[in-house]
Design brief:
This protein has helices spanning 162-165, 205-213, 226-237, 241-250, 324-337, 380-383, 403-407, 415-422, and strands at 2-3, 12-18, 27-31, 35-36, 46-57, 60-63, 70-73, 83-89, 97-103, 109-115, 124-126, 137-138, 141-143, 150-151, 166-167, 175-180, 183-188, 194-195, 264-268, 274-282, 296-300, 308-309, 349-354, 368-373, 433-440, 446-451, 457-462, 467-468, 473-475. By secondary structure, the chain is α+β, with helices and mostly antiparallel strands.
Length: 476
Amino acid sequence: TVTVKKQAKVTAYQYRISLKSTMAKATVKASTKTSTSFARLKQYTTYYVQARAYKTVKGKKYYGAWSTKKKVRTLCAHPASKRAVTTTKAATCTDAGATKTTCSQCKKVLKTGTLKPLGHKVLAQVNAADPTCTDEGVKSHWECPRCNAPFAEQEGQTPLTKEAVTIPPKGHGPFSWIQFDEADFWLCSTCNNWVEDMYEQRIAPAMGVAKKLGIPVQNDWIDYSWTELGAIGDAMSGLDQPNADLLAYHFNIIDRDRHVSGKTKILTLTDGTELPMDLLGTSHDIRTDGKGKAGLTFGANKALPEQRAMNDPQEREGGWATSDMRAWLNGDFYNDLLPAEVKPLIKSVEKISDSKPGSQDREDLSRMTASSNKVWLLGAMETYSGRQLILDPYSALEGDQYMLYKQQGVYIGARKALLKTLVGGSDVTTESVIWWLRGASGLDGFTAVGCYTNNQGWYVGFGSNEKCGVVPCFCF
């Protein structure tokens, strides 16, 4: 309905309505009344309306100006096809639910309704379960599968509370104690989990990692596959040092003093060579991908069958970082000789070496340069203790002694340990055993370690184009 104010001295009123604001194709209607209606309009649709008055004088109509356009919307009839019933509150076993009917055309809520309570489903029996250190136990009872409400009997006549059927966790204990890097851990004898806080009884992060790995615990590191060792080593990198040690201890890779077993595991190269590998230590070498320390470090305790020169032709400038040996170990040896299952497990680590061997500038620490290595040779200090006997003082900056050599007392004067640990039990009574270290010698070229046929261990410089044994190392 369109309504206008009554005007004096007018004959009638003219009204028009259109779907367009320009009033194109408008429907026009005249009436002597101040209001009128238009029939057959579309539901819930925007229209534009105007009105004007006119006066008839001697049969001629004189029109006033059209009024300002008014924008109106027709009412919605809420047709059945536009009505939707939705649930606003779901009914439960014991409580009623609610619904509403809404017109999707005008969004008006037309009515509300209720849903009857569902009632309990056929009750299911819940068997008793003992509590654990961290999880609740439960008493035997009957339970609704839909709402988990507990009852004393199958008929559901006696409701129970959750508290009545729940048994609190036992809590951890009794404990045994261990310490790594001044961090204390306690082993719960009930659940065999390590906790890192005696009072709050928080499970140590290493235990969460061990559970995620899902690797069965073996008696020694050699009992794991290379793939399993790779997973353990990589997981250790993601933990702080105490938890990394705890993870290694959990898998019997180290003992409570961080010692390794000294046993060897055979690595079979693609050419059939069987290379006995030692576990040199844990969390020793820094990964070059920024993910902390590599978990496990391995080193051969027997040289490869073919002796090789460090550089040929002879060159010591640049040291290990630019040597032919490093290029070969990280190139052809890695790509062609290492087995396919081992290569993706190896982590590149940082190795320090003297890039200016023979320099007389003893204050120039910039001569010690870092390189990224997948495969590498041992440095003097990674092998020995006894720094006063090192030929080149800069060898002392190449790293710290690995745990295996430290716990076996390897140093330059310890010939028995040298023979047993470093040359794989070779029969040195019949031939000399000599293999390269990666340090550049201040005397003649690069350093090597070995044993004379008289069973005396020694450490000396060799020309880089001389051929010595190659003892590769790598990290997981």
